[in-house]
Each structure stands twice: as structure tokens, then as C-alpha cells.
Amino acid sequence: MAWQTPIIVHPPAADGGRRVTVRGQDVGVAHGDRDLEEFLRRAGLGEADIALDDPCLVEWRGGPHEWP
């Protein structure tokens, strides 16, 4: 299996939300960094481990780290 980042933030939907998957599991739709950080905490990442701009941790699909 090819390597991929453990967290994928999918392209924005019409309402601006972005679906988030962690290790292949859908964890919800984030509408901003706070939502995304909460999903990652629930997935077991500690606050010190959450680096939303780290390309080894988070893959932003359909655009950069932005929220409409």
C-alpha cells in the first residue's frame, strides 16, 4: 500500500465545510480550524501533535489550508 498522510482534509463543499478523514476513517465535516482540531483530539492526537500546516500530517485536497 502506498504511503499517505494520516489526515486528509477534502475539498470544500458548497456550504464551505470540508470532510475530514483520519487514517482512512471519516470523522466528520469541519467548518474551521477549531472543528478540525477537535476531530484530531478525538482521534487521539495531543495538542502538541496537531500541526495543521505540516504536510507529513495533513493533506489539504482541493486547495490550501483555507476556509471559505
Automatic annotation (TrEMBL):
Domain of life assignment: Bacteria
Protein name, UniProt field: Uncharacterized protein
